[in-house]
Each structure stands twice: as C-alpha cells, then as structure tokens.
Predict the 3D structure of the following.
Amino acid sequence: MPDAATNRPALPAEIARRRTFAIISHPDAGKTTLTEKFLLFGGAIQMAGQVRAKGEARRTRSDFMQMEKDRGISVSASAMSFDFGKFRFNLVDTPGHSDFSEDTYRTLTAVDAAIMVIDGAKGVESQTRKLFEVCRLRDLPILTFCNKMDRESRDTFEIIDEIQENLAIDVTPASWPIGTGREFLGCYDMLRDRLELMDRADRNRVAESISIDGLDDPKMAEHIPADLLAQLREEVEMARELLPPLDLQAVHDGTLTPIWFGSAINSFGVKELMDGIGAYGPEPQVQAAEPRQIAPEEDKVAGFVFKVQANMDPKHRDRVAFLRMASGHFKRGMKLTHVRTKKPMAVSNPVLFLASDRELAEEAWAGDIIGIPNHGQLRIGDTLTEGEALRVSGIPSFAPELLQNCRAGDPMKAKHLEKALMQFAEEGAAKVFKPVLASGFVVGVVGQLQFEVLASRIEMEYGLPVRFEPTQFTSARWVHGAREAVEKFAAANKSHMAEDNDGDMVYLTRLQWDIDRVARDYPDVTLSNTKEMM
Ligand code: G4P
C-alpha cells in the first residue's frame, strides 16, 4: 500500500521503522540531558550521567580541547543507535559549538528530521534560529521540545507565538502544560487525551499516565487543583480554536512543527516526544543524487559520507568515515564501488555506535549510520554504491569566514605540515589553500576557535608546533567559467590565486571591492562562495 502522506510505495518494515534525526538547540537548552534520557529509555545506557561528561566538556575551551583529545567520547557520540518500542532511532550529534556550523550543516544532510529543543523561559535563542535556518534550507521536518517546564517559564501561547513569528513555521501543540515552575504538574496530552503527571521524586522514572475521557472527565479534578484545571480547560479550548491541527503532510513538508512540553532532567515529556518521533518523524527519505535520486526501498545499497573523523586512535592513523545509508540492505563484507575513484571497496569492519560502545555492524538498512574505518580513501561527499555511478548531491562546502597563514615552527617541516593540513581539510575541519606565488598555506575556518583546535591537534597528532598568523586575505571564492577565460583571469591575478585541497582554483579576496572588480572586469568568470563536495 502506498503511504497516503507521501504517495510513495510502502517501505520494507526494517526501513520503515527507522528514524534518523538530530537535535538542534541553543547551548544550555538541554540537548545533552535530552539525549541522555533518549538513551536511557532506549535501553542504550543504564544510568543517567554517562553522556553528561560530554555536555560539560563543551563548556570551556580548555575542556573542549580535552574532549578533542578524548576522541573516544566525541566519536561514539557522533551517531547513536537504539531501539524504542518497534522503532530504531539513529540520533546524529550536531557539534555543540557555534563555530562548527559547516560541520553542522553537513550533519543535517544525513538526517530525516530535527528535534528543536528550546528553553521554556528563554524561547527562541540565536543559535536555535541559525540551526533552524539550516534545516529550513532542506525543508527538514522539525519536532519541537519545550524544555525546563519545571522552572518558571513563559506563557504557553507566548512561546508558541514566538516560534511562529520568529521562525515562520506553524506550531501545533501535541501536549499542553499544566501550571508552571513549582506549580508545574505535568501535561495534558492533546493527541491522545491523556493526563501525564510529573514525578518529582525520581528523575529517571516516568509516572504512569492517566487515561482521561476528554477534558470534562471528572477524574481530572482528582489530580488537578480547581484553578489550574479551569485555566487548562480554557487554554486547551483556545489552542484548539486558534492553532492548526496536526497535519502529517505539513509536518513532513517542514511547514508545521508539533510541540511537546516537558522537563528533560525530570524525564518528563520525553517518552511522549519519542512516541511522537516514532509516529510523525518521517521514515528514511528519498535522497537527492545525480543523475537520479535514490529511494530507500531500492534493493541495491547506496550510501554517502557526511563526516570524517581522523585519528580516533592516535596509535593507528585510521579515520572513520560516517556513512548514511540511502538505500538497500547492507551486510558486512559487502563489496561496494567508491564512485569518485571507481574503485571497489570491501567494507569488512563497519561499526555501529551504541552510546558509549561501538560494535561491528553485521548489517544496516537505509536510514542507518555506519562508521567505516579507512586510510583516507573516503572523503566527505563520497558516494558508495553496488556499481551504479550515482553521486549524492547537496553536500556543499562553504567559503570560510576567517583566514590565517599557517607556518611550521620548524621551516624544515613544511612537507609534514602540508600532510597534516590536508588531513584536516579532508576531515572538513578546515579549508587549506596553497597560494600560487607565496610559500606556506592559507587556512580558512568558520570560527576563531577552530584555529586553536587545529594548532593543538597538529601539535598533538603530528608532533609539529605551528603558528597561525594574520593574512591580508579575508575570504576565498571558487572560480568558475570557460577554461580560457579562467586561465586568463588567473594569469592576470596571480597574487590572489591559490588551489584548495582538492586542487580546485580559488581567488583569495581582501575586500568586497575585489569581488566587485572581478564582476566588472571579468564578466566571463564567476566567483562562488560554495562548492559541491563530490
Ligand atoms: P545543552 O546540552 O543543551 O547545553 O544543555 P544541558 O543538557 O547540558 O543542560 C543545561 C543545563 O540545564 C544543565 O544544568 C541541566 O542540568 C539543566 N537542565 C536540563 N534539562 C532541565 C530541565 O528539564 N529542568 C531544569 N530545571 N534544568 C534542566 P547545569 O547546572 O549547567 O548542569 P548540572 O549541574 O545540572 O549538570
């Protein structure tokens, strides 16, 4: 039977039960706490507190470096798989720090939905908005969790209005909070007509839900004081009148977000959200690719690399490429074709990430994320298939916003430095440009912190002290056009020209004036601030 909402063929059961998503939020809204509760209810961890370390590590720069050193933690948390009821959840971690927005963007190409966590007292914050905009570019379905309802929070209508106005997305309440702060009792489940009360005694337990026969059920009064009950009835009635009802198609189109209210730290509202992800978070979706798109139900396996993590084990220079399965049923040992190089690749040691462990993946289905250890063959944007020359599209590389020169402390070590920088470039941690005329390298990143992380990693992983120094250049643009025009342009602007880490030509700019001048003087050449990874 085709799916009524998507008008696509029904997926094989194993694929249809997969939900692959990421959590987006402003720092401190509760992403780590919510992740931990997901894992707890998904049976992936036994006790709250195990993921905590990571959330805390992000807080300060020095701790962040420590986290980078402690690759085990950050990597196993990059993608986590666990079961919840009949569903298999794949939770893909988005980097916490705002400096890594490009990485975040690419992570979001690997998921089918995003959970937006907001703080009930603060509403939509800057980083939430930024991440939301990235999701919007891909019309990614968004489910919203309004957290920290156990604290004094804003009026429910006000929160919903703010999301609607600020993010230009319709909101439909899946639950409605009863009271706020110390008076917060729980929520009325608007989709299932149930009362969910919060158990403040045990933060890892969830109180039983109470079946209710509509808002007028006399049982309500047994659990809710009269004033709060009157308020709840009035608000729910108003909400049902004023706010749009749940419409699955609109959720999948990314134009409507259902919102749940809860308190992650008290494990409250989390199961309802998880049920919601199961019920409304979409199944694995069709993947944009060239020359044709890839449907998850196809028999043949296809997948693409959206993240590469190097030096997980400093003793072995191995890298793990994270592959999102786009179609088919993968089995360990399969020989796949690496489309970019057209070479066969036996995938014999793929790993699945379960909370704090990783284990060999004997199989994986469309929607899953597997890690493939390799020695640098796999790059971000690469596609693996069973032979067909398909290339997943839509994984861009952005022009960096900050540039600096990078030099080895010891000039004799320039070759080593090149190797180290190329590795980070392949990981997607930086852009590396080799100027045509000048010696050394220009390194481009999105946020200042990345320079510090890079310097520390190059020293740690390659034993190579490096210096980052200011450069006259402020940005880089990829150069496109007919070969002759591009060559003429490059020859006349040698002091601006460089090659990126894939050997593609870039124009390094100082001021907007440079870009305007090129547009005026070289109408046959275009400068672009993104490039498709392939
Ligand atoms: P993040 O990953 O989005 O940055 O947020 P994280 O989960 O680390 O949570 C940020 C802070 O908010 C933590 O407090 C956490 O305990 C608290 N928190 C999370 N969910 C809730 C909730 O439902 N209610 C309340 N009242 N607080 C919540 P912290 O003081 O920074 O850390 P900790 O000392 O509690 O570990």
